[in-house]
Specification:
The structure is a single chain. The relative contact order is 0.11. The chain has 286 residues and is of the alpha/beta class. Strands 5-4-3-6-7-9-8 form a seven-stranded mixed sheet, sandwiched between helices. A two-stranded antiparallel sheet has the order 1-2. Helices cover 34% and strands 19% of the residues. Strand 8 and strand 9 form a beta hairpin. It is built from ten helices and nine strands.
């Protein structure tokens, strides 16, 4: 951290950094300046970080971390940055976990592993029993990042697999998943160019592009979910309000009952679906 004169001084590093970030169009220039000043060890390092941010690189990639559900999540360059709206997935997962013991949780399209890490860390504190947590992503950089974030969290950590959706998961989880979470890409292909440059230019397109209507990956998640959910298991899908009706139809076709849950505070929408509770009775232990 760099020692700085009073922030009100026109010559202070804080004032100079704020001015540079404002000129680059950073809306939260003051907050970002404090974080950069705290992270930099030398004036030269600070100058390089400020110029990276002014050029549009995500702040989280520059710092190497993002704040998510009270955790500091490591975020490597080229890895999807967890959004605050996605904390709704964590809240809903924890709500479901409170009703069962020793639950199995799977986080598909996990990116940095933020959701899985938050469930591991927050479960016991929220009154939920310890869960067996698994995560998967198709992007190797994301998998490496998620493995670091899940190592030892909650005293037990979680397993992270590399592969395409369910193909990444060990067969022993089939029919045993109590909470299946997916923060899959849901931006329509034609809308990618309308996203802020820090997303469209610096995050993997694979983590953003959901196909022509934004639902190509989510439909695959829904179609495969019945084979992996335990009886009465819960499926949580982040989506947009305008896409919800199409996804509800897909859920019904898969034999799942769904409803939309929204948070104005987080500007978030999640489809919550339940598997039938009478599909073959009691599940076998691992």
């Amino acid at each position: 951290m760099i020692s700085v004169p009073p922030a009100g001084s026109a010559e202070s590093p804080f004032a100079r950094v704020v001015g540079r970030l404002r000129s680059a169009g950073c809306v939260f220039a003051e907050d970002e300046a404090r974080l950069l000043l705290d992270a930099a060890h030398t004036p030269a390092e600070l100058a390089a970080m400020v110029e990276q941010r002014a050029a549009g690189q995500p702040l989280e990639h520059i710092l190497g971390w993002a704040e998510f559900h009270g955790l500091r999540i490591a975020v490597d360059v080229g890895v999807f940055v967890p959004r605050r709206r996605t904390e709704l997935l964590v809240r809903l997962a924890l709500d479901h976990l409170r009703v069962g013991a020793g639950a199995v949780v799977v986080d598909l399209c996990c990116g940095s592993g933020a959701v899985a890490a938050a469930v591991l860390a927050a479960g016991p504190a929220a009154g939920a029993p310890a869960a067996e947590v698994h995560a998967a992503d198709v992007e190797p950089r994301a998998v490496r990042c998620a493995r670091r974030n899940l190592a030892g969290v909650g005293g037990v950590g979680g397993q992270v697999y590399e592969g395409d959706l369910y193909a990444a998961l060990p067969a022993r989880l089939r029919g045993r998943v109590d909470v299946l979470i997916a923060n899959a890409p849901y931006v329509p292909t034609g809308a990618i160019d309308l996203m802020p440059p820090e997303a469209r230019d610096h995050e993997p397109r694979l983590a953003l592009d959901g196909g022509p209507d934004g639902l190509a990956v989510l439909r695959r998640v829904v179609a495969g979910a019945p084979d992996w959910l335990a009886p009465g298991g819960c499926l949580l899908l982040e989506t947009s309000r305008r896409q919800a009706a199409l996804l509800l139809d897909a859920l019904a076709r898969a034999g799942l009952t769904g409803r939309l849950t929204a948070s104005d505070e987080l500007d978030a929408s999640v489809l919550v679906a339940a598997a039938p509770s009478d599909r073959g009775g009691r599940r076998e232990p691992a």
